[in-house]
Design goal:
The chain has 15 helices and no strands. It is mainly α. The radius of gyration is 25 Å and the shape is globular.
Length: about 325
């Protein structure tokens, strides 16, 4: 297994480099260093000298990808891309264009993101799997038909509707929980109840239907017929045998998502004013802060690659027949 992990790690390096290059190119196609300077200094009454000074202080006065004025290796090293990208592979995120330490910001903001994402994942997984098993238990009945129609209806509604509707009904009309905001420690729970609930409800439609499909494939297999022949009830068959044998596709979805929970939810954190990494990224895009944008994209890529590796390893834990080579 160790040789497999090392090989996957070596495969990931060119992938991360390609993501880094693509992020760099896309960002600077839309924004020039002059645009970034004006955004940071203010659009009005900004002199050309002030722009040049800002670019020099932040290292944006160099060529983007190739420095034709240098010789040898400096043609690559004396560029914005090299100066801003190499340290990422050492997880040195540096200083943002607004002067803040990106690594410190990430360490502070990861906890609100995890506080929102982990309960949403755990409760959502429990609710979706339970509903899917009940739909399979009552298959070929009006209960399954009605549940399927309800799931399609839930899938057809935008997540923004759930957010705005939940804030209006639960937060404003009923005044059960705050509409937005955040606090430290256990005081944060009252601010997380509404976004967690909305995340779960918004994911029921697609989640329950997907798990239902997995379980329907399992109930037609030979081992299920054997279990029924031994006298087991349908509930025992579903919860003891079908659920266990469907764990590989379930783990595929869950383990891949786990590292990305660290990155937070862009929309949810922005609407509920939660100071996590999702809102951190949105704010950086609005401010055209390239240092934060490329750090967050790189970190997300690393976590996604790690999630795929964890998925492969988890297969061996669930199914002894799987071997990594």
């Amino acid at each position: 297994m160790m040789s497999y992990i090392i090989r996957r790690f070596l495969y990931a390096l060119p992938l991360l480099m390609a993501v880094n290059v693509l992020t760099f190119v896309l960002f600077f196609v839309v924004n020039s260093p002059d645009d970034m300077a004006r955004m940071q200094l203010g659009q009005k009454h900004v002199t050309e000298q002030a722009i040049q000074n800002w670019k020099h202080q932040h290292g944006y006065d160099l060529p983007l990808l190739w420095n034709s004025g240098q010789a040898g290796g400096k043609c690559l090293s004396d560029t914005i891309f090299y100066q801003k990208s190499v340290n990422l592979f050492l997880f040195d995120f540096g200083i943002s264009d607004s002067g803040r330490n990106i690594g410190t910001d990430i360490r502070q903001r990861m906890w609100p993101s995890l506080a929102l994402a982990l309960p949403s994942l755990a409760v959502g997984l429990l609710v979706n799997i339970t509903l899917a098993l009940l739909m399979v238990l009552f298959r070929n009945t009006y209960v399954e038909l009605g549940s399927s129609v309800l799931c399609v209806m839930l899938m057809s509604v935008s997540s923004l509707f759930y957010i705005i509707g939940g804030q209006f009904v639960i937060g404003k009309l009923l005044k059960l929980v705050p509409i937005s905001g955040y606090d430290s420690g256990l005081a944060a729970i009252k601010f997380l109840i509404l976004p967690v609930m909305i995340s779960v409800v918004a994911g029921i439609g697609s989640g329950a239907r997907w798990y239902r499909t997995l379980f329907l494939e399992e109930v037609e297999k030979d081992y299920v017929r054997t279990a029924r022949a031994k006298g087991l009830t349908e509930t025992q068959v579903l919860f003891k045998h079908v659920l266990k044998n469907a764990m590989i596709p379930i783990l595929t979805g869950v383990v891949v998502v786990l590292p990305l929970l660290f990155m937070g939810s862009l929309i949810m954190e922005s609407f509920f004013s939660i100071p996590g990494l999702g809102s951190y990224t949105i704010d950086a895009i609005n401010r055209q802060d390239f240092a934060i944008v490329r750090s967050m994209v790189f970190l997300g890529s690393v976590l996604y690659v790690a999630g795929l590796l964890l998925t492969d390893i988890s297969y061996t834990l669930v199914d002894p027949r799987v071997r990594l080579s």
